[in-house]
Every structure is written in structure tokens, then in C-alpha cells.
Model the fold of this input.
Amino acid sequence: MSTLKIGIANYAEMKARTLTIAKGKFKAKRNDPKVWFTSMESFAKVLSDKNRTLLDLIMENKPGSLTELAALSGRAKSNLSRTLHTMERYGLVRLKKDASGKIIPRVPYTDIVLDVSIGAKTPA
Done:
């Protein structure tokens, strides 16, 4: 079982954290979030119920192409492509091309943990 830890921090908070790490004043911990969203809204949009169902569908069926995933999901291939590329930017899916050029989606995690603080503070 592999788990992806996600954090929420606005741009200013992420910049402050990055600068603190770069200056050597803070060392990121091993269990710190690996992926950051700028808001709960962006997190909720990318990991909507519909998109989590899509991730589950990929994990269970291991489709050999976007065309196969489109047939399994009932979603348009162009819509899937946009959604999966967004998810790939956050590390939620991996898209690999096979020898024939087909894009094969895979989900590298079985679980996602959201690490969020109440109130505004610089994540440490």
C-alpha cells in the first residue's frame, strides 16, 4: 500500500516554505506532504467524486489505452485526456506511452492523506 500525502497552502505560504528550506533554516521532514494544492477548492475540483471514481476504475481495470478507459468510463476521450494530464501534474496518475504510442494510465497510490491546518500559517 502506498500513500500520497497532500497539503494545502496558498502561494505566499508555499513561497515562504520554499525559501526557508532553500536558506537552510528548515529541513523538510520525510512525512511532509509531497504534493501541494493552493486551496481546498482546487483540491476538491481535481479530486471530485467523479475523478476519484475514475482513479478507482483505472486501478481496478488497468486499461491499456485512453480509448479503453473512455469506453469503461463513458467519458469522452478528450475530456479524459485533459483530466488525466491535470492529475498527472499533481502525481495522482502516471501516463506512459507504449511502443505503439498508446497512452496507458496508471494510479501509483492506493490512498491519499490530506494534511491541512485550520487557519492561515506557513506550513512547516
Remarks:
- The mean pLDDT is 91.
- Residues 10 and 38 are 4 Å apart (CA to CA).
- Residues 3-112 form a domain with the Arc Repressor Mutant, subunit A fold (CATH 1.10.10.10).
- The radius of gyration is 17 Å.
